[in-house]
Amino acid sequence: MLRVTGLSGGYHGSAVLREISLEVEPGAVVAVLGRNGMGKTSLLKAVMGLLPWARGTIQVSGHEISSLPTHQRVRSGIGYVPQGRGIFPRATVEQNLRYGFVVAGRPMRSALPERVLELFPWIREHLRQPAGTLSGGEQQMLAIARALVADPPLLLLDEPTEGLAPAVVEHLHAAVGRIAGSGAHAILLVEQHLRFALTLATHGYVLERGAIVVSGSSEELQREDIVSRYLAV
Ligand SMILES: Nc1ncnc2c1ncn2[C@@H]1O[C@H](COP(=O)(O)OP(=O)(O)O)[C@@H](O)[C@H]1O
Ligand SMILES: [Mg+2]
To answer: How far is the C-alpha of 167 from the C-alpha of 165, rounded, in Å?
Structure first.
């Protein structure tokens, strides 16, 4: 589904990502872990073509996308939910959802897909509400729903639990579990919340200063020595 090989990249005058290679199989959930500032967000930005510079290869469904502009990467089948959610607070919930069609190059007036409304049943009752009036957890779910309206085979989630209360995190866990369970979307899940990530993912990668230092099954990544060395805050 996603195959990244030898990906380096960064900002003007700095290298942040160092020779990253990783793979996500169709329908799989794969975690990217690591402390703050280790390059997790930069990695997702590089996949989306949003880093100032990058080199290496990025294949989605067998197509090389690393020379494409961001909107064509979206159209190649990637749903991107950035850190901080990036919803439009003054637009309604429905307008935010429809924006998901726009970035994917689909007609804005397309019918909202039932499968997305079924994943997040509460959304139906809130379609006309300004998105900024939703709770933090609802805004996160809206951001994910927006990425799903175009039915992308690959979903990139950047720290979806950030800033959410534990009860809301449980709710979000169930929602991401349902998305994964549908088998229709592979998920690359960036998280600092280890239990959230490793109970959803089958395996994962640990980033340290822009390089992958460990990869393994979710079970292996919970080993005491790995957690204390690379992940504990
Ligand atoms: N816009 C930027 N310009 C320059 N450096 C940046 C920028 N954004 C992030 N960085 C640097 O890149 C490194 C990785 O950041 P980031 O990818 O945001 O890490 P993470 O998501 O793991 O917290 C950090 O050292 C950070 O300071
Ligand atoms: Mg980040």
So the answer is: 6
